[in-house]
Amino acid sequence: AQTVTQSQPEMSVQEAETVTLSCTYDTSENNYYLFWYKQPPSRQMILVIRQEAYKQQNATENRFSVNFQKAAKSFSLKISDSQLGDTAMYFCAFVVFEDDKIIFGKGTRLHILP
Amino acid sequence: GAVVSQHPSRVICKSGTSVKIECRSLDFQATTMFWYRQFPKQSLMLMATSNEGSKATYEQGVEKDKFLINHASLTLSTLTVTSAHPEDSSFYICSARGARGTYSGANVLTFGAGSRLTVL
Lengths: 114, 120
Description:
The complex is a heterodimer.
Chain A: E1 3-5, E2 10-14, E3 19-21, E4 24-26, E5 32-39, E6 46-52, E7 60-61, E8 64-69, E9 74-79, E10 88-96, E11 103-104, E12 108-113
Chain B: E1 4-7, E2 10-13, E3 19-25, E4 32-38, E5 44-51, E6 57-58, E7 67-73, E8 76-81, E9 90-97, E10 110-111, E11 115-119
Parallel strand pairs in B: 2-11
Antiparallel strand pairs in B: 1-3, 3-8, 4-5, 4-9, 5-6, 7-8, 9-10, 9-11
């Protein structure tokens, strides 16, 4: 069975600092997608970044980047120059190609402190 | 970008009544829609997957007679909580995807803003 593990239930960092959120997953599949979703206090789920497993290059979206280590089944999210608006719950998620079911981790609550 | 509208955002009902939540894809055709339930400070729990024109596939432990899902068109799926009880109070979120089998390019999973159900 596929699983997604986020080992950090909660984190706090000062504004403008860099923070890394951890995510590991377990699967026997070779082709899949990985995602980081953000859920701010409004509770709207927002896609932060997406990575295709067949791509070796790490995905980057402005201040957000990932460190994708396929062999280690690790998919961490780095937020650079953190901003107050980054305060949210962050979910790591995984889906196998051609599958319908996205599997979410339990989330990491991130607080950006002024 | 893709937009999913979920309505109502908040609903309060009496125990024993039924409540319908709508999920609409506004600018794309959603072949697949997903319904989740989220308890406070917890992750999203997938309740069911619905494909347009076919019966929903429910996750283990989810009562299909309690949570009726209809996906009658490519832009609308509804979740009806029947004979609601206080334990059904929760935050319900829908999501929608265009083409099956891929999350590449513009085909991403888009979420509605969620519906908070309170059963008195």
